[in-house]
Amino acid sequence: MAERYSFTVNGVKRSVQAEPKTPVMDVIRREWGLTGTKHGCDNGTCGACSIVVNGKAVKSCLYTLERIGDGAEIVTVEGLARGTELHPVQQALIDAGAVQCGFCIPGIVMELYALSLTTEDPDDDELKKAVGKHLCRCTGYEAIVDGARLAQKYLKEMRSPA
User: Fold this and answer.
1) Is the same domain home to 62 and 98?
2) β-bridge partners, 82
3) Which of 24, 30, 56, 143 falls between 20 and 30 A from 17, CA-CA?
4) Is 64:58 a contact under the CB 8 Å cutoff?
5) Contacts of 55 (CB under 8 A, 6+ apart)
6) Taking the complete model, does pTM exceed 0.90, yes or no?
7) Could you tell me the CATH number of the domain that includes residue 40?
8) Hey, which bits of 76-146 come out as E strands?
9) In this predicted structure, what is the pLDDT of residue 14?
10) pLDDT score of 162
């Protein structure tokens, strides 16, 4: 039986009436038109569907509406940029040459964004672990890890007073 769920998505209050077992990814893409969240493997392996829920990166193909629960704060890749100004994580991956086909990048961006919320100065192992949760068919991950390092530099610069 369908139930009503309400969330804050990228700072905007949204609601949906759907079955509790509906994957959040389906609602994000089909109901709300936020297609930056990619539909990949359907089993949590690829990470292309990653979003941030209440400050934590999750695979939206595995998270159902009932699991996330009513009232959650959801951030998708569309919620990071401010107008034409990209979030430092997005800009760093571009600057490092990590973006090729672009399919995996939204999930990686969300993973690194979530890491930045909980860890102010992650070490190389933490960055590699975060990136390692995602599959990319275009690279050997070197540029992505370089982008993750550069993102940390950009975030530090952003936090430091001029």
Assistant:
1) no
2) 85
3) 56
4) no
5) 73, 114, 117, 118
6) yes
7) 3.10.20.30
8) none
9) 97
10) 62
Range of the domain at 44: 3-79
Q: Which two tokens stand for residue 23?
A: 């994957």
Whole-angstrom distance, CA of residue 96 vs CA of residue 133:
19
Is residue 98 located within the same domain as residue 42? no
What number of helices (H) and strands (E) belong to the chain? Answer: 6, 5
Which pLDDT tens digit goes with each residue over 77-93? 999 999 999 999 999 99
pLDDT tens-digit series, residues 118-140? 998 999 999 999 999 999 988 87
Tokens of 150: 């550069």
Strand partners, 4: 17
The pLDDT tens digits of the residues spanning 19-56 come to 999 999 999 999 999 999 999 999 999 999 999 999 99
Residues with Cβ < 8 Å from 107, sequence gap 6 or more?
Answer: 37, 38, 40, 46, 47, 48, 49, 50, 134
Domain boundary among 79, 102, 132: 79
